[in-house]
Design goal:
With about 180 residues, the chain is mainly alpha-helical. The chain has a domain of about 80 residues. Helices cover about 65% and strands about 0% of the residues. It is built from 7 helices and 2 strands. A two-stranded antiparallel sheet has the order 1-2. A hairpin with a 4-residue loop joins β1 and β2. α5 packs antiparallel against α6. The longest helix has about 35 residues. The N and C termini lie far apart (about 50 Å). The C terminus is likely disordered.
C-alpha cells in the first residue's frame, strides 16, 4: 500500500511539473512580445529593452523558468498586465462569488440527485426509473461547455426570470443594466 501511495504521489508531481512546463512554454509560443505590448506601439527599442529587463525576459529561459516555478511554490501567481494588479488579489476578489455559485450548484444538484435516486429506487424498472436513467446519462455525456450554454440560453433567454448583467444586488450595489452581447 505504501509503494502504491509513493508511486501515485510521484506520478502526481510529474503531472504538475509537465503542466507547469506547458504553461511556461505557452508564454513563448504566443505570437506577441509582452514587452512590446506593455511599452506601446510607438516605443523606442531602448524602452522595449528596458521593459524586457524589468520583466526578466532578457535572462536565459532556464532562469526564467526557475523564477516562474519559485513563484508558484511560494504562492505568487504573477502579475496581470491586463489589469495591472497581482493575480492573487484578482483571484481573492472573485473567490466569494465563485464559492457561492459552487455551493448553490452543489445544493441544487445534490437535492435533485437524492430525489431522483429515491424515486428510482422505490420503483425499479418503472417509467420514472428509466426516465431518470436517461436524464442522468444524457447529463453526464453532454460536454460541460455545451450544457452550460444550453442552460444559459434556457434560463436567461427563454424564461426572462434572471439577468446575466451583474451579480445579485445584495452584494453588488450598482444598478442592473442590460449589456449588449449577453444574448446568445
Amino acid at each position: 500500500m505504501a509503494a502504491f501511495l509513493v508511486r501515485r504521489t510521484l506520478y502526481g508531481l510529474l503531472v504538475l511539473w509537465v503542466i507547469s512546463l506547458a504553461t511556461f512554454a505557452l508564454f513563448f509560443v504566443a505570437p506577441h512580445d509582452p514587452a512590446r505590448i506593455i511599452a506601446g506601439r510607438l516605443a523606442t527599442p531602448q524602452t522595449v529593452a528596458l521593459v524586457q529587463h524589468r520583466l526578466g525576459l532578457d535572462q536565459p529561459i532556464t532562469t526564467q523558468y526557475w523564477h516562474f516555478v519559485d513563484g508558484l511554490l511560494h504562492g505568487n501567481l504573477g502579475y496581470s498586465f491586463y489589469s495591472s494588479t497581482q493575480v492573487n488579489s484578482l483571484l481573492l476578489s472573485r473567490l466569494p462569488v465563485t464559492v457561492s455559485l459552487a455551493l448553490g450548484a452543489a445544493v441544487l444538484w445534490l437535492s435533485a440527485g437524492v430525489l431522483i435516486g429515491v424515486l428510482s429506487a422505490a420503483r425499479p424498472g418503472s417509467l420514472i426509473d428509466r426516465s431518470a436513467t436517461v436524464l442522468v446519462l444524457t447529463g453526464l455525456s453532454t460536454p460541460t461547455f455545451l450544457l452550460g450554454i444550453l442552460l444559459i440560453y434556457f434560463f436567461f433567454c427563454c424564461t426572462s426570470r434572471a439577468s446575466t448583467s451583474s451579480r445579485p444586488a445584495a452584494t453588488f450595489p450598482f444598478p442592473r443594466t442590460p449589456r449588449a452581447g449577453h444574448s446568445i
